[in-house]
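tool_call predict_complex ligand=copper (II) ion
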Amino acid sequence: MRRLAPVTVVLTAALVLAGCGSEDSAADVSVSGAYMPQPVSDSMAAGFLTVTNKGGTKDELTSVTSDVGEVTAHETVGSSMREVKEFDVPAHGQLVFNSGGNHLMFEKLKRKPKQGEKVTVRLHFAESGTVTVEMPVKSATYTPKTGH
Ligand SMILES: [Cu+2]
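tool_result ok
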């Protein structure tokens, strides 16, 4: 339980700020496998992660913010991509961002993230409030072993 305490504090603060009276549904959504390949561009980067919803209610990822720049969520359709405003996180399901598929796109970077650093990313959910993720920066060619 001790390991989870900082997350709980962040979530509680987010709910208070939002004036949200919902119960502790925040515990239903968690993030794993987050990483950012070290960007080759000075102004743009991509990020990947998996959102898992343990709860019985669908949630939605409504926005993503970071201190390193502007973030949008994209889906890949064929060989092109388009911005998606709200991604569903199905009940008892996952929302997966992975290379070649859905991805987070960081633009107008204030600094260029380097391998070994961490980028703070905040995921804002319709039901679960805000989840803060420390996204590690990996090598430019990194692919997770469990990746697709
Ligand atoms: Cu994109």
